[in-house]
Amino acid sequence: MLAVFHFWWWFLLVGIVVTISFEVARRRRLRVYCDRRCTGLRWCRSFPAASKDDIRSFLDAFVDAFGFPRKRRLCFSPDDKVVDVYRTLYPSIGYADCFEIPTFVKTLQDRYGLDVARLPQREYTLGELFALTHSQQI
Q1: Domain limits for position 30
Q2: Which residues contact 104 (CB under 8 A, 6 or more apart)?
């Protein structure tokens, strides 16, 4: 009985160490975005007719879909490609996909009525998608 207990204790310990190492590596990869200063000014200059609330709401949809804290929403600029953020999270095939892009697409459809499936297939920036969602509301 004691041997089984020790086995599970070591199994749990190894699992915790592996999980922590993956999280440390993930955070290191995301520094390219998280170490930025606030990109709010870039968003306002790129979309002068849009309100700050519209921009924040759009970025909230993005960070929610990707599982980032909302306080990080202005770490992402209008020039960032959605697929580049995804590739930063999952740099190789061996990583588990949490379906961030389909979640973001569904949010764009539900919240803004943007039918992403009808868009030309290419790598869109956050700014391009914001412009498409903003034009859908007008």
Answers
A1: 1-35
A2: 61, 62, 65, 66, 82
